[in-house]
Specification:
Helices cover 52% and strands 16% of the residues. The protein is of the alpha/beta class and 320 residues long. It has an eight-stranded mixed beta sheet with strand order 7-5-6-4-1-2-3-8, sandwiched between helices. Helix 5 runs parallel beside helix 8 and helix 9 runs antiparallel to helix 10 (266-298).
Length: 320
């Protein structure tokens, strides 16, 4: 772009043919009313429904809507990475396309960042009343664990709805993370930050793209990408099992000495299961880290961008 906009709104999109028109209808008046230059970077994460066609129509009617299209599906965090890395704005806001995070908070985020000179403004959920009992408690456990890893810099109940300054974006781009988890990386930067509280709404249309399996994967990625604590856990588990084995050996020796040994398979079977389980857990944890080292050594890109409407515009001109 010849002139960088003040604000970029990054929106990962995957199979959102039902929600996307409603999102654009609600988002555009808010951004037009800001009175600043802006762009919306819609990152199509290899959608297989009518989403790419809808995005092209939106781009034709709304010049500020920019299309970045992946060559294949690469995941939400990869789409978020591509959007943040390719955004031109002095401030970058990331938001999902399902309207669970209200776009009405974007002006408040921008105003807070500009007035107080903040590099990060988190969108923090003030209520999880729309979530199920299971999701509320698993989310609470996730944030508790992440705060133990990152420290108190990580705000509670803060997801991927946030504003970043250009300085924060450049810092993230300079980090050699192969599979970044921004919920941990952004607080780790320690840049001046603030919070905007909001109530998360229900999905405007369609079904969630974050089932339990992906939530578990995100939690595992968060821990293994950011901390070596699980390896220490494996060490402690091995030490604990060693102590248990010593205690059982002493108990067996004493029982034999007093002549109260009783032949049986229960204790032996339980002991073998216990030791085998501990060993498998330790090997599994080591495997997770070895696998990530292998991926980092391969240095394969996390995504392939097949199309960027901004590059096309720069090549052929704006047509105005």
């Amino acid at each position: 772009m010849s002139t960088a906009p003040l604000l970029s709104v990054v929106m990962p999109i995957y199979n959102e043919q039902e929600a996307l028109p409603l999102t654009v209808e609600r988002l555009r008046p808010i951004l037009d009313g800001l009175g600043v230059t802006y762009e919306v970077v819609g990152v199509d994460d290899g959608s297989t429904d009518a989403t790419p066609v809808l995005m092209q129509k939106i781009h034709q009617d709304w010049p500020e809507f920019r299309i970045v299209r992946f060559a294949r599906n690469s995941g939400h965090q990869a789409a978020l990475t591509a959007g943040i890395h390719r955004a031109f704005g002095d401030y970058v806001v990331s938001i999902d396309a399902d309207l669970q995070d209200p776009p009405e908070k974007i002006p408040e985020m921008l105003e807070l960042a500009r007035e107080q000179g903040l590099d990060i403004v988190y969108g923090v959920r003030g209520d999880r009343g729309t979530d199920t009992f299971f999701k509320r408690h698993t989310a609470g456990a996730y944030y508790w664990l992440m705060r133990k890893l990152v420290g108190q810099r990580m705000p509670n109940q803060a997801g991927d709805y946030r504003l970043l300054s250009r300085a924060a974006v450049n810092a993230l781009k300079a980090m050699p993370e192969h599979q970044p988890v921004y919920r941990l990386l952004v607080p780790w930067l320690g840049f001046p930050s603030g919070e905007v509280v909001y109530v998360r709404e229900e999905r405007v249309a369609g079904s969630t793209h974050y089932p339990l399996s992906k939530m578990v994967r995100l939690a595992l990625d968060s821990v293994t990408n950011f901390s070596a604590s699980p390896l220490r856990l494996a060490t402690w588990l091995g030490l604990f099992s060693f102590l248990v084995c010593i205690a059982l050996a002493l108990y067996t020796t004493v029982a034999y000495a007093v002549g109260s040994t009783v032949p049986g398979w229960s204790s032996l079977f339980i002991g073998m299961l216990f030791i085998g389980a501990v060993q498998l857990v330790c090997v599994g944890l080591l495997g997770e880290y070895v696998g990530r080292i292998y991926s980092a050594v391969q240095a394969r890109p996390a995504y392939f961008v097949g199309y960027d409407s901004a590059e096309e515009r720069d090549r052929y001109g704006t047509g105005e």
